[in-house]
Design goal:
Structural class: mainly beta
Helix content: under 10%
CATH architecture: Beta Barrel
CATH class: Mainly Beta
Largest sheet: 22 strands, antiparallel, barrel
CATH superfamily: TonB-dependent receptor, beta-barrel domain
Mean pLDDT: 89
Number of domains: 1
Shape: globular
Number of strands: 34
Strand content: over 45%
Radius of gyration: 24 Å
Length: about 675
């Protein structure tokens, strides 16, 4: 059993019980009180402005990304949502599969996701062990997206280095009654979507259904998906609302495989021979059902939720994987706005339970992706209990002191059904106590400066435990202490954000690619993740060819600087950690006139990054030039999205290893020149 910093009971009691609060009176306060939603709003799913007001109470790197940011693009993967979010590095590999890292989280993980916790409408998308993927995410189905970097995700009780991302679907209150969308483009890309919404007295509902398919840029990268998102809310009275969510996904996707650096740059459309011979695929069917209820009682907001998920994964790779997942859980959270004497105070306490099982079978994968003899059969179970509390105290009229603590009790258990007495069997428990302390200075209504120090801890997922990591307790948990300072603000023409952070890690998970879909996982001793995140949105010319408010030029910039390295490691010294560029820059200039818009945008990685701990093999630098244009009318809109106009050959993503060889297949080529267009209509 791993015992990590058993919780400080005095601290836990202090933050969970709070103080004796007086009800809010006329005393001035910088803490927004509990909001009573109007009848034409949802209590369980706030509108974008309310969500932004709430998230900006966080003393750290957070943001709300409105769907207007990505709606007039291809909007096929989460890169389209997150690419202008500083500190976030996201690169599609094939289909919806993506390599996502926030502040260097899951840096060496070359498959699926770890280190960032994904939510949809506040309900976990990750499985209970912490693993995640992207096949169930449909960017065209969301109203806005919340990004919580690092330990700033305490609102959800999240504990990972990268933080959390919450994708929020519309309700019947904040979307058009009927809308549809059709997209088409390069590589036989096609998508059709239809959405509907209604409000009937105390009830509202929303549903969207989409179908998407493509042959893909590379050989053996065709995919097809069908998704349905729906929710319905019932307003019992002015103080209570309950909302039911149902999501279904059906995805089939071919996998082309990683290439050598030479092939990735000179023959990027090819698939590896083994992937073709064994017909590598990743096919997912899932169903998620959840309920959220909000109850206002005086100055206290109570939130309750339950959720359940079932998912089938058919995944012919180095073996034929047949996994059946079931997850379930619930949460309770209470937020009280009150006072300590004449000082405003806000206390949030919560508990989340998230349990799940995976019935995991691995068969021999025969040529053509056929199921052969059974090789592995395990039942993997995860149980997680998270307790958290956060208290925001107005120590001056303009400054809040925000303290929080999170306690996690996590269990991982594996039963090897083919070898009941083998080393893969076992049970391990992890305990984390993660405190956080931050300061938020309200310079003005729309300008804020913040700083914080926080801890995070992550248990190994079952993705870390394949046949080369058979023993359940072979790996230690990953721990981090993060320091952060920065600010954000907006005026009528400028929106900005800036954060500087340093995370000191112990036992960071390191994945070594062994080829053929195999890998091994180790703990590094000590590593450093530090960097700068800067974003700017600037309407810098209002009235280019005439009076103000007729036409304009706007600039959008997202810049990320990463310094990730070993800290006097016995094997790797102070080498760079492989897997992410030192710098990543996204820029866009848009001209707007009476609903019409056009402008170029660029993606620039000025320096290649290493793909091995020995720092002997790296990617190349690259710069992509793109263009988008469109027209927005009250009832319809059209867009044109051209990408990589110069047809630049580049490496978008890479697997990592300890000591690479020159021709090792570690590289995922970026997509060549592509053009997409779409039409949206609404009623």
């Amino acid at each position: 059993m791993h015992s990590m910093l058993r919780p400080n009971l005095l601290l836990a009691v202090l933050f969970s019980s709070g103080f004796i609060f007086a009800e809010t009176n006329d005393t001035a306060t910088i803490l927004p009180p509990v909001k009573v939603s109007a009848w034409n709003e949802s209590m369980t799913s706030p509108d974008t402005d309310t969500a932004r007001q709430k998230i900006e109470q966080t003393p750290g790197g957070v943001e709300v990304i409105d769907s207007d940011r990505w709606r007039d693009t291809q909007a096929a993967t989460i890169k389209d949502i997150l690419d202008y979010s500083p500190g976030v590095f996201v690169q599609p590999k094939w289909g919806e599969d993506t390599r996502l890292s926030i502040r260097g989280s899951g840096l060496s993980r070359n498959f699926h996701l770890r280190g960032v916790q994904l939510y949809q409408d506040g309900i976990p998308l990750n499985t209970a062990d912490g693993s995640g993927d992207f096949q169930e995410i449909d960017p065209s189905g969301y109203r806005y997206t919340e990004v919580y970097k690092g330990a700033n995700a305490l609102r959800f009780g999240a504990n990972s280095l990268g933080g959390a991302i919450n994708f929020v679907t519309p309700t019947g209150h904040n979307v058009d009654r009927l809308s549809s969308r059709v997209d088409a483009g390069s590589f036989d890309y096609r998508r059709a979507q239809i959405s509907g919404a209604t409000v009937q007295n105390k009830m509202d509902a929303f549903i969207t259904a989409s179908h998407q398919q493509q042959n893909g840029y590379r050989d053996h990268s065709a995919g097809e998906n069908n998704r349905i998102f729906a929710n319905a809310g019932w307003r019992f009275n002015e103080n209570i609302e309950s909302r039911l969510y149902i999501n279904t996904t059906n995805v089939t996707q071919e996998i082309p495989g990683s290439l050598s650096k030479d092939d990735a740059l000179n023959d990027p459309t090819k698939a590896t021979a083994n992937n073709l011979n064994l017909d590598y695929q990743r096919n997912v069917e899932s169903l998620r059902i959840a309920n959220r209820t909000t109850w206002l009682q005086g100055n206290t907001r109570y939130e309750f939720g339950v959720f359940a998920m079932t998912k089938e994964l058919i995944h012919p790779i180095f073996r034929y994987l047949d996994y059946q997942y079931t997850d379930q859980g619930g949460f309770i959270r209470a937020t009280h706005d009150g006072q300590i004497g004449d000082v405003a105070n806000r206390l949030t306490v919560g508990i989340t339970l998230h349990n799940g099982e995976s019935d995991s079978q691995q068969f021999t994968n025969l040529p053509g992706g056929k199921k052969g003899a059974l090789q592995v059969k395990t039942l993997d179970a995860s149980q997680n209990t998270t307790l958290y509390a956060e208290n925001a105290l107005s120590i001056t009229p303009d400054v809040e002191l925000i303290a929080g603590v999170q306690y996690i009790d996590a269990q991982r258990k594996r039963d090897d059904k083919l070898n009941p007495t083998g080393p893969a069997n076992g049970e391990v428990n992890y305990y984390f106590s993660n405190p956080k302390l931050g300061v938020l200075w309200h310079v003005s209504d729309n300008q804020k400066i913040f700083s914080n120090i926080s801890q995070s801890g992550e248990t190994p997922t079952f993705g870390e435990l394949n046949f080369t990591n058979a023993a359940l307790d072979q790996l230690k948990p990953q721990e981090a202490t993060t320091f952060e300072i920065g600010g954000r603000g907006r005026t009528a023409s400028i929106q900005w954000e800036l954060a500087l952070y340093r995370a000191e890690l112990k036992n960071e998970f390191q994945y070594y690619d062994l080829g053929g879909g195999n890998y091994s996982v180790f703990n590094a001793d000590r590593t450093i993740h530090q960097g700068v995140e800067a974003g700017l949105g600037w309407l810098f010319w209002d009235g280019v060819f005439g009076d103000k408010n007729t036409d304009s030029l706007e600039l959008n910039v997202a810049y990320t600087y990463n310094d990730f390295h070993f800290d006097d490691d016995d094997s790797w010294g102070n080498n760079d950690l492989p897997g992410a560029p030192k710098q990543y820059l996204r820029t866009e200039v848009l001209y707007r006139l009476s609903g019409f818009f056009i402008g170029p945008n660029t993606e620039w990685v000025p320096q290649g990054y290493y793909v091995d701990n020995a720092n002997t093999l790296s990617t190349n630098s690259y710069a992509l030039i793109n263009l988008r244009a469109g027209y927005e009318h009250a009832r319809y809109s059209v867009y044109f999205d051209a990408r990589n106009l110069t047809d630049k050959a580049y490496i978008a993503s890479a697997s990592v290893t300890g000591q690479a060889t020159a021709n090792q297949a570690l590289f995922e080529p970026g997509t060549g020149r592509a053009v997409f267009a779409g039409v949206q209509w609404k009623l």
